[in-house]
Amino acid sequence: MRYFFCVILPPIAVLSTGKNGAFILNLFLTALFILPGIVHAMLIINRFYEEKLNQEILDAEAELYHFNQINLK
Known about the structure:
mainly alpha; 89% helix
């Protein structure tokens, strides 16, 4: 859904990630010309999903570590 907003309303897509500085930059880029705003929004959305996936992996590893620590006692 965020990728759809990247094309239609790039600043809204960036705002949905919670990155306020990137939102302001995207407003500026979109005001200059729509294409830089779209490219910037896609980069921010890709980074958002990458960070989210990395956090899920770290959480799963931490949960597995704690599970193993409990079972070793």
